[in-house]
Amino acid sequence: MSMLGGLALFLFGMEQMSDGLKALAGDRLKDVLARLTTNRYMGALTGAIVTAVIQSSSVTTVLTVGFITAGILSVSQAVGIIFGANIGSTLTAQLIAFKVTKLSLPIIAGGFALLFLSKSDAKRQYGAMIMGLGLVFFGMSIMSDAMRPLRSYEPFIDLMARMANPALGILVAAIFTGLIQSSAATTGVVLVMGGQGLIGLDAAIALIFGANIGTCVTALLASLGKPRIALRASLVHVLFNIVGVLLWVGFIDQLAMFVKYLSPTSGHLEDTARLAADTPRQIANAHTIFNVANTLLLLPFGAQFARLVERLIPEHAEEREIVSGAAPEWTAVHLDPALLAMPSVAMEQSRGELLRLGRLLRDVFGDLLPAFIDDDATKADDIAVRGAAARSMDEQIDAYLIQISRRNMSEEQSTFATQLLDVGTSLDHLEELLRKDLVPLLERKRAFGHPGEGVGMEGLRAYVERVLDNLDTALEAFDTSDAEMARGVVRAKPEMERELRHARLLHYERLQDEGSDEARMSGLQLDLLDDMRRVFIYSESIALTMLHGYLDQRGGQRDAA
């Protein structure tokens, strides 16, 4: 049980450290992944850096799969990132190899103090990172103590002797890593066993090889239910790690000798004590050399890897449309759950889908007046169908934004998430207005049975055009983070109210003649005017959300109105 408890602390510490580092890095990680992938070599460097920061090659690969699904990266760009992620993951082993377990509790205490006593958001994230690191070392200490009695337990010694068979060691480590979905945890256990003298360097290298294969399970699971292009990225990860292991499996002895030659030795110690002191560092160095060498050897063949997975997993036509950006209307296809691990990226994708929903709704509002004038049943039915579809897309975005709001985020990110929810609420109102008021209004107009413009249509037409212009401006301001454009919508309110009063006056006299066709037509037009007034109000709400402390995802706070 002590072993399991130590492993649980280790995994929790890794998660704490990763969350703290991701929050500190914030939007910069997104920018690095999106911009520094111009070629495979830059991609590999990017993958190594990002993984070193977030301390998980699995998370990097899962994020990469999400980026591909979201259309941010192509498979060819992702190849380098995936290759480089394996290098970045070796930093964990190098950290663990330091003998600082005695300092684990002071490290935890220091991190706890920063996390819970600091008022600064950045200091709290540093505290989470430091406390996570301390928990990693403390978990290692508990596992080490739990394994000490096993040095004299014959059945366990016999089991470890079988690990000298590379195939068995690779298989066991791959299964274990796949189950716990953490190659870092497997590496930690291997380092503990090496430090206790339970396994030699050769057996440890085989276990490290298996951990590299087992870590692919996380990315494969993340790609399930995604477009086939995401599965391609996961397959690149699998092929790279398997090919790398196959290249080295026949040279484990030579790798062990090379690592022993390069690694420092504890000359002042003897026999078992020296072995226990030196083996963890040798294992960590073997892990690093293995992954660096594989990347250098296989990166020149990145294009071949990409072409191979394209042949193994051909793309469906409809998925090709999604990835190319021609996404199906009224479907939020770019909200990948994998991106929730990096809230800044998930929020940027949400902003894109909110913008797309807003522009689709604007197109529907643009079709309303012709359908109203012509009593066109086909146009009216099409608007009704699009209104129902808008609700489905709106619900998808709302659910995703709620998931984002539950993540561990910085104060600025939390503010931005709240503002996205506010914009989403404005679009909710527009969608509901369309379904519950405007579609029934078209049905009432058609039942009236008098196609044509009628008296007073000129004022109605002018007002609708102004409303749509302001909705366009609000959405453009939301897209570009342009505060001045948003102010333009807010400043338009007095003039919009004057135009509305003018358009209404054209109908009030006709309403006196109750029961006449002109009165009924004026009543319908007034209802349409009132509904379009609400469209302007929700457009203004989008603009006001921006002006009240709108956060630009490229960093910093926009000036308020």
Brief account:
The chain has helices at residues 2-25, 27-35, 40-54, 57-69, 75-96, 104-117, 121-147, 154-162, 166-180, 183-195, 201-214, 216-223, 228-248, 252-262, 271-298, 302-312, 317-324, 343-374, 377-405, 411-448, 457-480, 483-491, 493-508, 517-547.
Keywords:
single chain; 561 residues; mainly alpha; Methane Monooxygenase Hydroxylase, Chain G, domain 1; 79% helix
How would you describe this structure to a colleague?
It is built from 24 helices and no strands. The chain has 561 residues and is mainly α. It folds into 2 domains: 2-312, no CATH class; 337-547, Methane Monooxygenase Hydroxylase, Chain G, domain 1, CATH 1.20.58.220. Helix 1 (2-25) runs antiparallel to helix 7 (121-147), helix 10 runs antiparallel to helix 11 (201-214) and helix 22 (483-491) packs antiparallel against helix 24 (517-547). The longest helix is centred in the last third of the chain and has 38 residues, at 411-448. The chain is elongated, with a radius of gyration of 31 Å.
**Oligomeric category:** single chain
Number of domains: 2
Counted beta strands: 0
As a whole number of angstroms, the C-alpha radius of gyration is 31 Å
Helix content: over 70%
Can you write the helix and strand succession as a string?
HHHHHHHHHHHHHHHHHHHHHHHH
User: How far is the N terminus from the C terminus?
Assistant: 60 Å
Q: How much beta, percentage-wise?
A: under 5%
**Number of helices, where a helix is a run of at least 4 consecutive DSSP H or I residues:** 24
Rounded average pLDDT: 81
Main sheet overview? none
